Amino acid sequence: MPQSLNYLRESPSQTAGPYVHIGCTPNFAGIDIYGGDLGTVMKTGPVKGQEITVKGAVFDGTGTVLRDAMVEIWQADAAGLYPSANETRGAADPNFTGWGRSAGDMDTGEFTFETVKPGQVPWPDGRMQAPHITVWIVARGINLGLQTRLYFEDAAEANAVDPILSRIEHQNRVPTLLAKLEKDGSYRFDIHLQGPHETIFFDI
Amino acid sequence: MDDRKLGGYIPRDRAWQPDALTPPYKTSVKRSPQAALLSFPSSLSEETSPVFGHATIGALDNDLIHNFAAPSQSAIGPRIIVHGQVLDETGRPVPNALIEVWQANAGGRYRHAKEGYLAPLDPNFGGCGRMITDENGVYEFRTVQPGPYPWPNGMNDWRPAHIHFSIFGHGFAQRLITQMYFEGDPLIQRCPIVGVLKSQEAVDALTAPLDMNRTVPMDSLAYKFDIVLRGRRQTYFENRVEGL
Lengths: 204, 244
What we know:
With 204 residues, chain A is mainly beta. Chain A has one domain (20-185): Protocatechuate 3,4-Dioxygenase, subunit A. Chain A contains two helices and eleven strands. In chain A, a hairpin with a 6-residue loop joins β6 and β7 (146-152). The longest helix of chain A has 5 residues, at 20-24. Chain A is globular. With 244 residues, chain B is mainly beta. The longest helix of chain B is centred in the C-terminal third of the chain and has 6 residues, at 200-205.
């Protein structure tokens, strides 16, 4: 027997279940506690850059909207800096948290994030990535949180040379990652767990 | 921390983690992606994570017996302490990790509008708590032991007693939600949600042992639940242009 490598195994995931809102957005679930839910406000003061609204919903393989999901987003500020302890390139906008969490509307399942359009962030080899938002989805029936990315349909030039988007084999699926500009100025990003419009999910 | 550079996150072990499609857990059938996942190395977007300061957390947030109770009241049920350490795959503690927990009350009833189990609500129990790990990655909370409950899947499926955990580490790649079970519960081996785990070793990894050394005599039993998040490669020899 060779030596043991002594690595630990990541804790196995289990579904967030139907009551994830009790734990993560308790006030939304009707439990008055903590003085409010985390992740409901991403802009804590005047922010730099273009302020945007992102709306969407999560659909199952039958096209039915999920009303028990939780969606989290994580993104850079308008200058491409993350408000994170691991950000070493500079100080991010102090009035921007970069992180949002939504339980979705109780009836329609629609989530809404009031945020800013992210700046560009470098890929490990130094190339710039297209502006993007990391999206994480959990719900009853999802055994391991699903990760994807939102890119912007109206950033075609940056998208065309993005290290990830340009590497996707089935280019006809790329539109599943593109938020579309709506008439009211908001961006629409629907997530399809399964079916002909299945969103591209990532193994990062 | 030594002066080795941190590389990207070690790829998630998909042979260890549950699959998306697990038909005995019926809801997974139409909520599981069918196309292959797109694999790529972690970048800044996954190696950063929001900051939750200790100031975010109130004094009673990790005391589920009292954080929703009326003054001088407390939740009903077996009093327990749950404690443990958050580590990464390389064995390093994860300090400043935000942990959020939620659970049913001692009768197996959740405080939720869509919950219809006939067991009663406890007016002094909300069912959620949160805490941030200390400099050694250690956390602790106090609660009542949740009850098992029936759920619509098969005609007679019961969830073993469990506590849900949501954990933020230092990178969004570490984001994890899981459940803790209690040593000795005969419902563990009968549960279709536990059944998505691929090995007894994985079930054991989510089963908290009774920890008599951490009980409070004449007050509370204790269970230990360690959590492992993904780790980052450590290397002297990795060139990354942006100098991470």
